[in-house]
Write a structure and sequence with these properties.
Layout: E1 4-5, E2 51-56, H1 67-83, E3 88-94, E4 100-105, H2 110-114, E5 119-124, E6 127-129, H3 142-148, H4 150-157, E7 165-170, E8 190-195, H5 223-232, E9 245-250, E10 257-259, H6 260-272, E11 277-280, H7 292-302, E12 306-310, E13 332-338, E14 341-350, E15 355-360, E16 376-380, E17 396-400, H8 406-415, E18 420-424, E19 442-446, H9 448-459, E20 465-476, E21 501-506, E22 508-511, E23 519-522, H10 525-542, H11 548-558, H12 576-579, H13 586-591, E24 594-597, E25 615-618, E26 624-628, E27 649-653
Helix pairs in contact: 5-10, 6-7
C-alpha cells in the first residue's frame, strides 16, 4: 500500500531539533519507554514536527487484530528504519485501540520515515492546548440542568446515572472535593484513574515535555474537576448524573498542553478499566477524522463505550474549525449554547440605586462584599492606542469592551492610577473575561445595558460611585439558549455533519479544586461536552442494554434546534454545522418510544439527488403517526432541498407485535 504522509499545516506547538537522539528502541508496553527528547533552548527555530504517529496495517487487538501480527510489524519497522539509517526514540506503543507507535525523530528525517515500506500512514503528534479557565464563583448548575431536562430526569424520573462508570480524560479530578466524593479508590466516587504526565509536564514547553507518570490523578489546574462536576457532582453543586462513578485519566500537567499519543494511551487505559462513557473536553482544531485520536475513539464506540468530545472553541476561525477527536465518525461531537442565567454577585450604582450583577476578570482580586468605591470615570475603550476621555487616577475606570485585550485595558488603567476597572460588554449580556495579569486592583465585567446606564448618569453630571454587596442574583442571560460565539463550526473535512448536538457551555458554574476556591465559572465546549456525557449515563441507566453506537442517534432524535444567534428575532434556525441536531433534551430522549435511524443525514458534496433510507422503530404500546416535513436552517453556502422532502408526507408506523 502506498504510504500516506500527513503534513501539519496549522501548528499549535512544535518541538525543536535535538542533537544526539538515541538509537532505535525496542517496543514495549503502553507507557513511555524512553523520555521524549527535550529541546536545547526555548526558541522555536524549526516548525517541522519531530514527533510522529507511525500506523501499521494490522488491525488493533480490540478490532480483531492479532498481537503477534502487530509485533511482526514492529520488528519490520525497526529493521526498515535501521536499513534507512534512521535514528529515533519510541515514546509509546499501541496495540489495543490503534496499531502503531509514536516516535521522536529528527525533523530532517521525517520524509524518509514516510517512505519506509509496510506502513499504513504517518501523522504528526500534535500538541493539544488545555482550554482556558475563567473566574471563581459560587456553586450553581440548576439553570443549565433545566435547559437540557436533566432536572426532570433526576427529580421526576428518578435516574441519576447510578451504576454507570464515566471516564474523564482531562487535568485530573480533585477527588478530595466533597461534591465529588472526598476520596479516591474502591468505594469512592472517583474509583480509579492514572496520571500519565505529572504536574510539571507541558507539551508546549520544550523544557517540560518529559512525562513523569504516577498513579495519583489529582488535579492542580481545575479544568478536569470542573468537567467532572458537570458530569456528576453531588453536593453544593449537583451535576447531570450525580450517581455515576468516575475514572480520572490525567493527560495535562498544571498548565499548558498535552500530546495526542498521551491521549491514546489514556483511552486504552480507560478501555481496560471498563469505563462505559468517556468525556474528552479536549480537541485539536481543523483536524481530519482519520487522525489517530479520532480513529481510536471510533473503535472505543464499536467496543461499547460512549465517547463524547468537545467540538472546539474556534468559532471565530470559521468553517471546518471542528477538532479531533470530536470529528471522529462515531464520536458525539458537542457544540456549546449559552447558559440561560448567570449567577453573580452585585453592586449598587449610586445615585440611581440600580443593582448590577458582575463577573470578576481572571485573575484579578475579587471585589469586596461591602463598602463604596471612589468615583467612577469614563475613559473610553482604554486601549494603548486610544486617548483617555477622563483621568482615572484615584478613581474607578469605566471602559467598553473591544479593540484590544482585557489585559491591555486593565494594565493601562492601573498604570494611570486607577483603583479598579469596570469593563462593560459591547454586545448584550454579561461576560467573564480573562488573561489579565494581576496588579492588585479589582477588575469586573458587566453587561452592556448596565454600562450604558452608568454612562448616562455620568453624562448627566452625576458623581457615580459603586456600593459592593454580598447579594447574589440569577441574572437572565440575553444570549441564553443561543449558540455560543466561541463554538466551532463544522463540517468535518470529509463533509460529515459535525458537531452532532449541543448543550450548555457558556458561563457554567461547577466544582473546582478546593485549594483554588472550590467552585468556578468557565465557558467553553469543554463545559457542554460533560453535559452530554452525563446525559449518556442517565440514558444508559434508564435503558439498560442500549448500544454505545445508538446513544448519539437517540439523543439527536429528541434535540431541539435553536434560532440563529446573530439575530434571534428573525426566527431562522442556526446552521446545522454549528449546532448539530440542536439542544440536548435528555428527558425527552429517555421517554421516547420511537427511534429514527440514522440520527443525521450527511449528504456530502454535489447537487444530484441523494437516496437514504430512514428506519423508524416503535417500542411503545400504541401506533404513532408522523408528518414528515423539513425546515431550512441558515447556510454558509447554497441551500439544497432533499428530494424526499419536497412536499409534506404522512407515514404511519405500527407498534411492535
Amino acid at each position: 500500500m502506498r504510504n500516506r504522509f500527513f503534513v501539519l499545516l496549522l501548528v499549535v506547538a512544535m518541538i525543536l531539533p535535538t542533537a544526539g537522539l538515541a538509537a532505535a528502541q525496542e517496543v514495549g508496553p503502553v507507557y513511555p519507554l524512553v523520555p521524549p527528547p527535550t529541546a536545547e533552548n526555548g526558541q522555536m527555530t524549526d516548525e517541522s514536527p519531530q514527533l510522529w504517529f507511525v500506523e501499521f496495517n494490522s488491525a488493533p487487538t480490540a478490532d480483531g487484530g492479532s498481537l503477534e501480527a502487530i509485533r511482526r510489524e514492529q520488528v519490520n519497522f525497526r529493521n526498515a528504519a535501521r536499513k534507512a539509517g534512521l535514528q529515533y526514540t519510541v515514546r509509546y506503543t499501541f496495540t489495543t485501540l490503534w496499531s502503531g507507535l509514536s516516535i521522536s525523530i529528527a525533523a530532517k528525517d521525517a520524509v524518509k520515515l514516510a517512505r519506509l515500506p509496510g506502513l499504513k500512514a504517518v501523522y504528526p503528534v500534535q500538541a493539544i492546548p488545555l482550554p482556558p479557565t475563567s473566574s471563581i464563583s459560587e456553586p450553581e448548575l440548576a439553570t443549565a440542568l433545566a435547559m437540557t431536562g436533566a432536572d426532570i430526569v433526576q427529580n421526576d424520573l428518578g435516574f441519576t446515572g447510578a451504576g454507570i462508570k464515566v471516564a474523564v480524560m482531562d487535568t485530573g479530578i480533585d477527588y478530595h472535593h466533597p461534591d465529588l466524593g472526598g476520596c479516591f479508590g474502591p468505594g469512592c466516587r472517583v474509583v480509579t484513574g492514572y496520571d500519565f504526565v505529572g504536574d510539571a509536564f507541558d507539551a508546549s514547553n520544550p523544557a517540560n515535555q518529559t512525562p513523569v507518570p504516577d498513579p495519583d490523578p489529582d488535579d492542580c489546574n481545575g479544568h478536569g474537576t470542573h468537567v467532572a462536576g458537570i458530569v456528576g457532582a453531588n453536593g453544593a453543586v449537583k451535576g447531570v448524573a450525580p450517581g455515576v462513578t468516575f475514572g480520572a485519566y490525567r493527560v495535562f500537567g498544571c498548565v499548558g498542553s498535552t500530546f495526542g499519543d498521551i491521549m491514546i494511551a489514556a483511552m486504552e487505559r480507560a478501555f481496560l478499566d471498563g469505563m462505559q462513557v468517556l468525556n474528552m473536553s479536549i480537541g485539536s482544531a481543523f483536524q481530519w477524522p482519520d487522525y489517530p485520536t479520532a480513529k481510536a475513539s471510533n473503535l472505543l464506540v464499536r467496543k461499547g463505550m460512549v465517547v463524547v468530545a468537545s467540538i472546539g472553541n474556534s468559532g471565530a476561525n470559521g468553517l471546518y474549525s471542528a477538532g479531533a477527536p470530536g470529528v471522529g465518525k462515531d464520536v458525539i461531537g458537542v457544540a456549546s449554547f449559552d447558559n440561560s442565567h448567570i449567577n453573580a454577585l452585585t453592586f449598587n450604582v449610586n445615585p440611581s440605586g440600580q443593582q448590577v450583577p458582575y463577573l470578576p476578570l481572571a485573575v484579578t482580586p475579587d471585589p469586596p462584599t461591602s463598602g463604596t468605591t471612589p468615583p467612577v470615570v469614563w475613559v473610553g475603550r482604554g486601549c494603548n492606542a486610544d486617548t483617555y476621555l477622563g483621568d482615572p487616577n484615584g478613581k474607578v475606570a469605566l471602559i467598553v469592551r473591544g479593540a484590544c485585550t482585557f489585559n491591555e485595558k486593565y494594565q493601562r488603567a492601573f498604570n494611570n492610577g486607577a483603583v479598579g476597572v469596570v469593563i462593560y460588554n459591547n454586545v448584550p449580556g454579561l461576560f467573564a473575561g480573562g488573561g489579565v495579569v494581576n496588579q492588585g486592583i479589582f477588575g469586573v465585567g458587566i453587561s452592556q445595558a448596565d454600562g450604558l446606564h452608568i454612562r448616562s448618569l455620568l453624562n448627566a453630571g452625576h458623581t457615580v460611585t459603586l456600593t459592593w454587596t454580598d447579594v447574589r442574583i440569577n441574572a437572565p442571560n440575553p444570549t441564553g439558549g443561543l449558540i455560543s460565539s466561541f463554538s466551532s463550526y463544522g463540517l468535518s473535512p470529509d463533509l460529515d455533519l459535525k458537531p452532532d448536538i449541543g448543550a450548555p457551555g457558556g458561563l457554567i458554574r461547577s466544582t473546582y479544586p478546593l485549594e483554588l476556591g472550590g467552585y468556578a465559572i468557565i465557558s467553553g465546549t469543554s463545559m457542554s461536552s460533560p453535559h452530554v456525557a452525563g446525559a449518556a449515563a442517565l440514558l444508559l441507566q434508564a435503558k439498560p442494554g442500549t448500544s454505545a453506537g445508538l446513544v448519539r442517534d437517540i439523543l439527536q432524535n429528541s434535540a431541539v434546534p435553536k434560532v440563529w444567534n446573530g439575530n434571534p428575532g428573525l426566527g431562522f434556525l442556526d446552521n446545522v454545522h454549528r449546532q448539530g441536531a440542536g439542544m440536548l433534551q435528555i428527558d425527552k430522549a429517555i421517554l421516547a418510544t420511537t427511534l429514527i435511524l440514522p440520527g443525521k443525514l450527511p449528504l456530502g458534496e454535489g447537487s444530484s439527488p441523494h437516496v437514504r433510507t430512514l428506519t423508524l422503530r416503535n417500542s411503545g404500546a400504541a401506533d404513532v403517526t408522523y408528518d414528515l416535513s423539513f425546515v431550512n436552517a441558515l447556510s454558509t453556502g447554497g441551500v439544497i432541498t432533499p428530494s424526499f422532502f419536497t412536499s409534506n408526507a404522512t407515514v404511519a408506523f405500527g407498534a411492535p407485535s
